[in-house]
Amino acid sequence: MVQEFKKNHTNSHLFKIDNFSLLTKYEIDCIESSVFDLCGRKWKILVNYDEDEEHVSIFFENQDPLDVELEYQVYVVSQLKAVWYPKANVKWDFSASSKPIAKGITNLMSLDDLKSKGFLIEDCCMFGASLPDQKTERPGTAECFSLIEKPLNNKVTWMMTKFSSFDAEKAHQSNEFIVGNRKWRIEVHPRGHEEAKGESCSVYLVGEGYINNAPKTKTFAKSKLRALDQVNRNHLEATDSYWVDEEYDDTNGFMEFMPLSKLCEPYLVKDKFYVGVEFEVISVAKYV
Predict the structure, then answer these.
(1) Where is the MATH domain (predicted)?
(2) CATH of 150-287, one of 1.10.760.10, 2.60.210.10, 3.40.50.12160, 1.20.1440.130
(3) Helix, strand and coil in the chain, % to nearest 5
(4) Is the pLDDT of residue 233 over 70?
C-alpha cells in the first residue's frame, strides 16, 4: 500500500507509525518525522497523541522561512481501501518567520475510530501531508517510525582500565557502538560535570550519527546507565527516558550519577571501573 500511495500521490509524504500501542506504554505524546522535501521546501509532520482524551492530532510544520500562501492537506490513511481522512484542502498563509510554524488538525480522530474504521490495523497507523496545488512528476516519499523493545545489542559495557590515568577534569568517551540505526558513546566525567564538579561522577549517553542512510530524526530512548559492582553485583543504576536530538547530542544522562565518595571498591577495583548502558526501548526510522 505504501508503494502504491507514493506512486499515485506526488507532492506527498507518508509517515507510518508501527507499534502504535507502545506510545501509551512509554508516555510518548508527540512524534516527529524527519525533515522531507516537497516542491523544493523543507517540512516535518508532527503527530500528537493525547492519552487522556484518546485522540490523535496531526500538524504540518515548515522548516524553511516562508512568506507565501499555499494549499496543504494533512490526513490519516485507510489500510482497507485507497482513501484518507479528511479530504479537504486548507489554505495556509505562511508569514515570514525565523521559527518553524505548525498548522494542522487538533483531535483529527479518536483511537476507537482509528481502529473501527480501518486506519489502525495490526498496531500500525499511517499519516500524510500533501501540497495538492503544486505540480511535479516526482513520486511521493515515505518513512516509518517504530519503537523497538530490547533492541539488538541493547547492553553495552565500557571497561575503563587504569582509571587513575584518566584526566579527572576532562570528559572521556567510550568507543562508538550501534544500537537501533544510530551510533552512540558513553561519556564519563570522573570528577563531575558543571554543577556536580567535585561532588559526583557524571555519566551521559551520547547520540551521534546514523547508519544505513537512515532518516535523521529525533530518537526516543529509555535506557539505564550503570556502574558495575565488581564484588557483590549490587550495581548502581539510574534510568531515564529522553528524546535525543538528530544532531550530535551529549546532554542526556546524569550529572549526579555517583557521589565521589562511592568511587572506590566495590565499583573501582584494581584501577578498573566498569560503566554501561542498557536500552529498554529505542525508536528507529527508515525510508520505505
Answers:
(1) 10-131, 153-279
(2) 2.60.210.10
(3) 10, 55, 40
(4) yes
